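Journal club prep — side note

Before the paper discussion, L.F. wants everyone to see what a predicted structure for a comparable chain looks like in token form. Sequence:
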Amino acid sequence: MSESQAHALLRRLAAGDQKALGEFYDLYAGLANGLALRILRDTADAEDVVQEAFVQVWRQAARYDPRRGSPQAWLCTIARTRALDRLRRRVSRREDATDAPPVGTDTPQTEEAMTVRKALDGLSADQRRALELAYYEGLTQTEIARELGEPLGTIKTRIRTAMIRLREALGPEAS
């Protein structure tokens, strides 16, 4: 589905079209679930987050602004935020998250996803690890520095350089 078709789905959602929600869900549920599962490492929690994210999409479809990103990116931002909130609540309750890799991730095989994966593969292991800690675990740069035992300035430079390289690799659409 093209981005303009996804925009049309969100306009239909904003108008209250329930069928559009089903279509949007069918398109992006696997992506949202894969992201939530990567962050939470718990299938039930990931499924809850995906459900919450789509409820939020339903309620806030009229707020979507195509100038700020694609519908897919908007949904991923919602799902990521909800997953990180759940992870922080889990940590604050001192629940131990398992270190086992997520099972059954529904990794999207779109051309866009493969382009992003290739761009990430072009980063150094240190840059990729810093970005993963920031994006998937929601750590601040200070927390990343502490986690990796590196100076804060090194982490800031690593993340900034990685973001510049990703922007270059992904072209003007990434800006």
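L.F.'s comment for the group: The domain at 109-175 is CATH 1.10.10.10 (Arc Repressor Mutant, subunit A). Keep this in mind when we get to the figures.
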